[in-house]
Amino acid sequence: MSDASVNGAPSQAPAANGLAVSVRGLRKRYGDVEAVRGIEFEVRPGETFGFLGPNGAGKSTTINMLCTLAKPSGGSATVAGHDIVGERDEVRRNIGLVFQDTTLDGYLTGEQNLRLHAELYGVPREVVAPRMREVLEMVGLWERRGTLVNTFSGGMKRRLEIARGLLHSPRVLFLDEPTVGLDPQTRASIWGYIRELKRREDITIFLTTHYMDEAEYCDRIAIMDNGKIIVLDTPEALKAGIGRDRVTIETDDDEAAIAALRESFGIEAKIAEGAVTFAVERGEHFVPRLFGELGVPIRGVNVSRPSLDDVFMSHTGTTIRDAEASSTDRMRTFARVMGR
Amino acid sequence: MATETTSPSTSAAGATDATHPTPVAGVRVPARSWRGDARAIKIVWKRELIRFSRDRLRIVVQLVQPFLFLFVLGGGLSRLASAGTHGVNLRTFIYPGVLCMAVMFTAMFSAASIVWDREFGFLREMLVAPVRRSSIVLGKCAGGATVASFQGIIVIAMAPLVGVPYAPLLILEIFALQVLLAFSITAFGIMAAARITQLQSFMALMQMLIMPMFFLSGALFPVSGLPRWLEILNRVDPLTYAVDPMRRAVFARLNISTVARHTLDPGVTWFGWRVPGLIEAAVVALIGLVMLAIGIWEFSRSE
């Protein structure tokens, strides 16, 4: 028995630096727009690593580069120990992909879709059938394998795609917004399957999401905004770093309330998602003072422990939803500039 | 044991193996090889066949047009044309051209599936696979050509209805020529599909090409004694080189007068030189290969 097995370390060493993903100064430029502006990070084998950020932050562009679907404009990266530019095929053999939009053939059955994938990836013939059964059972679609994919619901299609992405036992599974467009119940069930596959397979998961609550499932997350990584850590450490509670109040005169908060308490508040929002230590002790000293009628109050939403807010100054709205604005400005 | 496979089993296994249950089937994806590419070509080809076999309506719909040309147009005009056909049935005369058209339509539609695949995302699944892009394109092309040839076989089966005999060698010749045509047209369609990303535009382009190619090819008229401009266009039209050898094969089996043969089957000439059937077939094959090469190049360079 070797030492490695005692420590429970994965036996298959993913080459060179041993990292599942390693990114150095990666950039991507589309014309005048820099979608990704020099990012650096590493993902360890077996980790679930999340990319969090609003739409248009550069998450999908980064994933596309790591999956060899887009060429970087600068910097370098390795996936499973292989260079994403120089060893495209090697990278492709070692990764599984679940895209934002479905890439299944609706006119084939679930089983036929998987078989096609197995053939394209050169999965050895003798393991195709048992492996197919294994992944289909993992996502609970074994019974439905003979049904045309067109008749599947959105959640079933996503599950089938996850199964297909796993079929060739990739080292790294990329999930680009795995739950986008699904209802909350289906989202929860997809996460159940993802956790189950983590338990069963020796695999690194790299995912993007713009749902804050989903980021909590990750071992580490990188918050991305405007083409840059703003902060990278475990969800717990990120939340602990905030240290303060988030207080939102509803008032009759938000402007006056913000002014009063500044004058009486020295707190900088702002309007987020339609309510006056600020952060204080020990929020529950602060609220009674607030009612006594603010001088503006308060209609409602809410105190919450720091969430990843607050992490995002404290690092970017906006909530993820507001950031999305303003990134739409940026796109419009961009369109105007291009139009000239 | 019931279907509960996950939670209880781990505690039992936990005593022996501390980490996680080992996967039943670990897969190692082998390095790229010719064998892997052959498998990719085969599965892409097979997918086209599966999809075609599911689409019975398409098989029927694409037979409507040949029927219209052969029996409605051919039947309706036969009396009018009888003065010029020297006793040969007009339907027999236009049969090779109509067969070519049927094959051409199906081949173009098959090629459109690549545009369709792109719109529905499936093309991405194929393009990220660790195989040569050329394997995907070859598989698509082979699939489209097979499907179009199958459509051709149905039209070939109708041969006796229009006075074309069921002679084994003749049928074989016609079959080989239509396979060749199906391949070339599919290759052309795939090349076009590399650039045209919208299904509507693709279909519009195909419609715009098919009819002129059909009319100019001499499918409906003998190719000698044409006005100069029409003769030039006819010789440029690739379909000409599929229709002409096919007609030559059919007429070789007909028992007709020399005048009729001379009038109806004059053969394609280049500057007065009658082009042999084999060269005509080679022209079709060459065009197909060039189109295929361009298609592969286009798909290989895209990200």
- Cα(first) to Cα(last) distance of chain B is 49 Å
Can you give the helix content of chain B as a percent range?
Answer: over 70%
Average per-residue pLDDT of chain A, rounded, comes to 84
Helix content of chain A: 40-55%
Radius of gyration of chain A (CA) equals: 23 Å
The name of the CATH topology of the largest domain in chain A is Rossmann fold
Strand order of the largest sheet of chain A: 6-7-8-3-9-10
Question: How much of the residues of chain A is beta strand, in percent?
Answer: 15-25%
Task: Note the beta-strand portion of chain B.
Answer: under 5%
Number of DSSP E strands of chain A:
14
Strand order of the largest sheet of chain B: 1-2
What's the overall geometry of chain A? Answer: elongated
User: Which structural category do the helix and sheet elements of chain B fall into?
Assistant: mainly alpha
CATH class of the largest domain in chain A: Alpha Beta
User: If classified by CATH, what would the architecture of the largest domain in chain A be?
Assistant: 3-Layer(aba) Sandwich
Structural class designation of chain A:
alpha/beta
Radius of gyration of chain B: 25 Å
Based on CA inertia axes, which overall geometry of chain B fits? elongated
Oligomeric nature of the chains: heterodimer
